[in-house]
Amino acid sequence: MADRVGQQFGHYKLIRLLGTGGFAEVYLGEHVYLQSLAAIKVLHTQLGKDDTANFLSEARTLVGLKHPHIVRILDFGVEENIPFIVMEYAPNGTLRQRFPRGTSLTPAIVVPYVKQIASALQYAHNQKLIHRDVKPENMLIQDNNDILLSDFGVAVIAQSTHHKGQQDVIGTATYMAPEQIRGQSRPSSDQYALGAVVYEWLSGRSLFQGTFTEVCSQHMFAAPEPLRAMTPAISSEIEKVVMTALAKDHSQRFAHVQAFATALEQACQAERSITPHSASQPAFGATIQERPGFLSPPQRHSIQSRLPESLRSPMGLLALLAVILTLVFFAGGGGLFYYAVTHQPVVKTQLTPTPTVHLTPTPTTFPTNPQDIYTTATSGNPVLSSALSAQDANSWDVTNSSGRGGCSFTGGSYHATMPLSGYVALCLAQTTNFSNFAFQVNMTILTGANQDGGGLIFRSNGNAFYRLRVGVAGTYDLVNQTNSLISTSSSAIKTGLNQTNVLTVVAHNQQIYLYINKSYITTINDSASSSGQIGLFAVGWTTPTDVAFNNTEVWQL
Questions:
Q1: Integer Cα distance of 56 and 306 in angstroms
Q2: Cβ proximity of 222 and 208 under 8 Å
């Protein structure tokens, strides 16, 4: 993948990489004259003369899409045979970031999102355009919390002659309709994908799990687990609506996607009329489904036990997989990919069980506005305050593994260093133990490049820990042990070396609020670890990395 930062496409100079998918890279771009910002999608292809004409023709169709819930296409073009699309920039992230995988939502929260997305899809279908990749990652959040559906650019790729014969397998396997897998996409395929998103939001788990081949097999032949088996509070009316949208036979779904949204809204209203509102609704209306083995590698569910009898024999499965594997070549791979460090850390720190935590009771009223949460959590006197210029009562790790990384107090700062690629240097405060808290530190990356960086360790115990990383190039991620909870970038991060960023985590029960330079970034809901030690770390993905930390504070909530 070429690094195109600094290049110019049309009237836009590429400033920063926002994300990478199977078909394109998306950059933050600045107009060279107006200095306005936009998202620039640079496609992973080079077009010939005929393909260029087809691309430009299809792109004009996208520019003509005018809908309050569709991302506006501002411009498009071809630079040195590479096609690109200039889109409206939505800096508030996506619904995937707001509600990470494993988050379970109430129907009252889901319905407004579904109505907006269905309205956008219905408009596109009326224009004879199929989206083909409906998923939370393509649902962008506006300043007023309205939703914009993005990535209609995938449809442009699918309808260009350069991809003729591949076009109908474009999409994301998790949400792909059976007929789309077979290469026969139609408008109702978008309805199926939206139904899969709704199923995931209501249950807290994906419709099907497994490898690409397993997931495709289940979409085509396996019945989903009933919603009410996982979430008994869901009414049978809501379950029936969702399962209708997920019918294997496209003719058995709703007549159009707008009818699906309307039926879901009506079923939700019927449920409200008989179900009292819970006074214990958590902030943002999101909870985490408690799932056994959440810390272990993703379980691979056997598809054989859920397939029709005729396909359960070895020969039947072999024939089925032969069909599906022909699609793997075309499926590419979409979305951002984060490689979580699976090596044992070079700097070994013994994680011993921590004693029982005795905490001051959490305040009965907790703000709901994220910025108010930061103000409340960091007010008052901290229970831990250290300049990190020398060892203190928190017993910070001091190690040196002879060229293999370590933790040390040097030059008035606490340093975490990692000279090896793909390894993490963990530096824990051994005598600490916190549950609900705000944890803040000043971090400066002295050496490193791109994804190299460092950050915060918290709720670390004998079973699990969380790790917030901020990189040189402005990316960040939150990892639970080795499971990535979010991986993206933020304009709030000061990029480059020798830049000091203030990192803050507010952990309140299952909700984890992230702040960079005292600006709210996102909220994660996760229950893998509820208490433990705090610490700091450095990770060297590509080059030797040295990170300096100063002025850490912890406020107990």
A1: 45
A2: yes
**Predicted local distance difference test score (pLDDT) of residue 403:** 59
Say which residue the tokens 């609506």 belong to: 241
Which residues, including other chains, have CB under 8 Å from residue 300's CB and lie 6 or more apart? 209, 210, 211, 214
Question: What angle (nearest 5°) sits at the alpha carbon of residue 362, between those of residues 357 and 367?
Answer: 140
Q: What percent of the chain is modeled with pLDDT above 70?
A: 77
Residue 28 and residue 45: Cα distance in Å, rounded?
20
CATH number of 8-87: 3.30.200.20
Closest CA to 163 of 267, 266, 48, 6: 48
- Phi/psi-derived region of residue 551, left when phi > 0, alpha when psi is between -120 and 50, beta in every other case: left
Please, what CATH class does the domain formed by 370-556 belong to? mainly beta
**Helical residues (DSSP H) of 351-492, grouped into ranges:** 370-377
Distance set, CA 7 to CA 80, 87, 472 (Å): 12, 17, 19
3-state secondary structure of 258: helix
Q: Can you say whether residue 45 is alpha, beta or left, with left for phi > 0 and alpha for psi between -120 and 50 degrees? A: beta
Residue where the block lists tokens 């914009």: 148
Element (H, E) at 60: helix 49-63
Which residues touch 406 (CB under 8 Å, ≥6 apart)?
347, 398, 399, 400, 416, 417, 425
What is the DSSP secondary-structure string of 60-129? HHHHT---TTBPPEEEEEEETTEEEEEE---TT-BHHHHS-TTEEE-HHHHHHHHHHHHHHHHHHHHTT-
For the chain, the domains span: 8-87, 95-331, 370-556
Q: Is 309 helix (H, G, I), strand (E, B) or coil?
A: helix
Residues with Cβ within 8 Å of residue 183, at least 6 apart in sequence:
168, 169, 327
140: which 2 tokens?
């962008």
Closest CA to 492 of 471, 515, 511: 515
Let me know: does 391 contact 430? Beta carbons within 8 Å.
no
For the chain, give the number of residues.
557
- Nearest one of 530, 553, 396 to 460, comparing CA atoms: 530
Q: H/E element holding 154?
A: helix 153-158
At 293 the pLDDT is: 25
Q: What is the pLDDT of residues 481-502, one digit of tens each?
A: 667 888 888 999 999 999 999 9
Burial of 65 (0-12, 13-18, 19+ CB in 10 A): middle
To the query of whether residue 151 is one of the catalytic residues in this protein, the response is no
Please state the CATH superfamily assignment of the domain spanning residues 95-331 in this structure.
Transferase(Phosphotransferase) domain 1 (1.10.510.10)
pLDDT band at 402 (very low <50, low <70, confident <90, very high): low
pLDDT confidence bin for 45, thresholds 50/70/90: confident
Which element (helix H / strand E) includes 535?
A: strand 533-540
Runs of H (alpha helix) within 454-529: none
Residue 213: pLDDT over 50? yes
Catalytic residue among 51, 133, 452, 477: 133
pLDDT of residue 235: 93
pTM of the predicted structure, to 2 decimals: 0.52
Q: Give the pLDDT of residue 211.
A: 82
